[in-house]
Amino acid sequence: MKRWLILLLILGVSGVALYYAQRQKETPVGPQAIVNALAQTEREISRVPAGMVRLSDSEEISAGEAMAQNYVAQRGTLSAADVAIENYVGEVGGVVAGHARRKLIYKFHYIPNANFVNAFALPGGHVFLGKGMLQLMDSEDELASVLGHEVEHIENYHCNERIALEARLRHLPLGGLVTLPIQLFQVGYSKEQEMEADRDGTTLAVMAGYSPQGAIRMFQAFAKLQHTYVTKAQSPDQELSRVAIQGIVGYFRSHPLPEEREAQIRRIMVSRNWPQPQEKKLRVGPEPAKTASTKPVS
Ligand SMILES: [Zn+2]
Q1: Element (H, E) at 85
Q2: How many A from CA of 33 to the centre of ligand 1?
């Protein structure tokens, strides 16, 4: 009787192993596959009950600092024009982060890569913005909303909890956290955390004097991108490179629907009676960011 049980158990385990081996085979290789796999893992991890360990502020800051330094070193030296853009991003980010609750030193970095249609935050206060994302904007209010969103991933301990969890899962000592792949912070968080970063990030931007229309028009630009490159997929009139499109597809796989994000901000805008000052024009040059015709007007 016992032997039968053991045999059944072996058969069961082999079946499961075979199933996973088969699934692995179907997974395409390449950097995007890694990002997608990470996004999947993160979605599974995000179901782990809350109340997990967090790093202390000083641990979070030193881990984030080391990761940011590594990443900036890989990015290489910026051209004079890109330094000017980075300073501008830092100026807007500084004003927005001035209203943050956690008293951290926020630093804003620019990644001059048009294929990088994303922004992300590292633990401790570092925010990175890709050229591809900046090119979607035409107002400073949009920039403020994106930077506010990233600041709020730090403020609300989303980055801290992610790094703490990874450290635990991988049995890494504090000094080893710098070896974590940066993609862990680029793939997005749980839906609840993304919606929270939208709410609090737009609130920061509004407190800094920006219009919530910036966030709304950003979500509309995302919706247009999603429609062009994800829903319709590979339209013949596509203007972006394959790498950029892969990034966009990955972004929408790990973020809530832009329409939902827009609806949430519209609800809050009404309930809190947010002021809607005229949006400020984006001050980046000499390369024009985006022509008015490529973006829906709200
Ligand atoms: Zn986010």
Answers
A1: helix 80-97
A2: 20
149 Cα–ligand 1 center, Å: 6
The pLDDT of 57-68, averaged and rounded, is 94
| Whole-number Å distance between alpha carbons of 111 and 61 | 21
Pairing of strands 119-122, 126-130: antiparallel
Q: One-letter amino acid identity for 139?
A: S
| Average pLDDT, rounded, for the chain | 82
3-state secondary structure of 257: coil
CA of 250 to the centre of ligand 1 (A): 13
Distance from Cα 150 to the centre of ligand 1, integer Å:
6
DSSP class of residue 111?
E
Q: How far is the CA of 285 from the centre of ligand 1 (A)?
A: 26
Give the pLDDT band (50/70/90) at residue 282: very high
CA 258 / ligand 1 centre spacing (Å): 12
Ligand 1: distance of its center to the CA of 293 in Å? 27
Q: What is the pLDDT of residues 227-266, one digit of tens each?
A: 887 777 655 555 677 778 877 887 888 789 999 999 999 9
Q: Is 225 helix (H, G, I), strand (E, B) or coil?
A: helix
- What SS3 state is found at 30? coil
pLDDT digits (tens, 9 = 90+) for 12-61: 444 444 444 444 333 333 445 445 555 555 555 555 554 568 999 999 99
CA of 189 to the centre of ligand 1 (A): 6
76 C-alpha vs ligand 1 centroid, how far in Å?
25
d(CA 85, CA 244): 20
Q: What is the DSSP secondary structure assignment for residue 128, as one 8-state letter?
A: E
